[in-house]
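Friendly challenge for the regulars: who can give me the structure tokens for this chain first? No prize, just bragging rights.
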Amino acid sequence: MAEQTLTLRNLKVVFPSGMGLIRAVEGVDIDIGKGESIALVGESGCGKSVTSMSIMKLIESPPAITKMDQLTFAGDDIKDYTPSQMQSVRGKMMAMIFQDAMTSLNPVMTCGKQIDEMFMRHMQLNKKAAREETVKALELVGVPEPRKRAKNFPHELSGGMRQRVLLAMAFACMPKLIIADEPTTALDVTIQAQVLSVLRDMQKKHDVSLLVVTHDLSVVANIADTVYVMYSGKIVEKASVKQLFKQPFHPYSAGLLASVPSLSDTAGHFVQIPGSVPHPMKKPTGCYFHPRCHYAKDKCKASMPPLSAHDDGRQVRCFYPLKTNGGTSNV
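First reply, four minutes later:
Bragging rights claimed.
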């Protein structure tokens, strides 16, 4: 069995409110092997970002109530780590790339100074030595004239350059795990491809484990080894990227794939999943996806299907998986 970087078991995140409980995440399990690239996929509101932030213990409690059976990282049990203990893990051992570089970076500090702090905090370097490492980090992720760019403020750089600064910060201390939360959302298609290429190359070159949180299946195709499809706080399918794109078993996975426009598409119209993700305080009985599912039966409305293992190694939360339907769905 491959060496595990992260093992998460039975993560549950609830936000109490005056109107009831907001059940954001319900019993999520995730395994990330050393050097493995994992994608967590789903529509907005499915609980992806809450899951990723819970792994780094960035969800404040209160207001959230976070429970998990196991959180093992690099061989250490960090489930009960205090905030001060997590400070020594974040940045050095585990890093996050947030989706909007403009709001993630401090607008009143130069980009270089923000990266300098990583080296000064985690590697105890002085200012001069830290700046040299910062220049190297910027150069590694393809920033032209890195010494000059280090003196720029975030607003002086393009969106692609700002995202590369976040990549440089994430890889600065060569952590064991990087979590990228929608890393290309605010970028145009050409810059997206460049940023993803840098992220993938850096991850492979340094054998870093990667968790990419996204709703964009083109990102998944380019970067992931294994895909977790998430819907309304639960994992509904886990499969290798090849398995998922060749033949999705869950109707929701099939709907996500069918909604991606293709150059070879002759249908002449967009396919879309009807309805929307249920409100976390008003989830339906049974399978949460059944109100939007073309294949739903009475059994789906009555009880929640378990996440069942199949012969090809994937896991699917569905009473009637699509393995006999050619992996297509008219949800």
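The CA atoms of residues 27 and 288 lie 14 Å apart. The two ends are 37 Å apart (CA to CA). Your move, everyone else.
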